[in-house]
What does this fold into?
Amino acid sequence: MLVLFTIVLIDLIGFGLVIPLLPFYAERFGASPDVVTMVLATYSLAQLFAAPVWGRLSDRHGRRPILLVSLAGSAFSYLWLGFATHLWMLFAARALAGLCAGNIAAAQAYVADVTAPENRAKGMGMIGVAFGLGFIIGPAVGGALAGHDPNAPAVSVPAFLGAAMSALAFVGTVFVLKESLPAERRGKPSSRRSRVAAILSAIGRPDLRLLLGLYFLIIFAFAGMETTFALWAARQFGWGPAQVGYVFAYVGVLSAAMQGGLIGRLTTRFGERRVLVAGLAAICIGLAALPVSTVLAALLLSTACLAIGMGMTQPSINALISRQAGAHEQGEVMGVSQSLGSLARILGPAFAGICFANIGRNSPYVAGAVLMAFAVALAVHLARGTAAVAAGYDMAPKTRHAP
It folds into this structure.
């Protein structure tokens, strides 16, 4: 687990390096706010089609080969991004990165291979910690390298550093990481289903369908905020890539603290479903407070709610989804969830960009808060349904057996 954590962390630092500068990069080539968000969503559009395929391939051939291919593709995509001279090159580089983004689904399946069901949330939390630390170090370093000037950011250097980070993670996977999926568990019938069949099978299970729907809503709202935040901050505070990167790093610190230090204890004491409800409520509050954050202190409070909420929801819902999957379909089901997450990262930014450009810079966050309020209601229903089943089981008459 420690080796996997280190490899994923290195790769996600590279991913985080380019997050603060992409909106400024796109605006350099004359992109409007709605086009800027589509540049960011292109990654997820490509990932939408690729993630289930990578998940099934990891069930068939093992987790390690998929990690290697995805890391090599990521390194090349960052190089392309660094050499971009036209807007279409930004779209192409991000599309390639999304097509090669099989590392997270494979890493989550790796965690499922090596953890017991009762420790699954803690294991998924380690992947969340890697995300959090990646978004601490990556955006801070990338923003600092790009500079404070929103009109003249140095955008190529962070992209080249991102390529180096993915190459380093590739080398670590080659020489250090061991395969987690035994040969006897590879190539089972469930892993040979088509992508459409895998998705239909997943959404055909009521509990899994509800969890996947919640996952979609979370990513939809958060991705809309994430992809418009740099544009919002430039207009609200006159910020450039560096300041935006520092805020993302701050969010990463809080998210990593939650997922690394507290999520295991919280889920052990309260259960994943109750932690999920609390996390959704925190995201709702953070999104609702963001439009009225006119000073730095208010902004830090609202983004703290977002960070803590995501730190609670991500490992909890991933663990719940993983528990609904069989032993031979972990990669497939996690690939389906990543695919739905990718769809949310396409539609969420597109919706947020249209709202930003046509209604006002605060509108994406108001809409996201409404969606999260609906998600809270769904999660409460899920938690109460589980509690009712448990209570019914406890109250059921027990059959006495003769001694």
Summary: The CA atoms of residues 285 and 305 lie 7 Å apart. The two ends are 47 Å apart (CA to CA). Residues 388-403 have pLDDT under 50 and may be disordered. The longest helix spans residues 363-395.
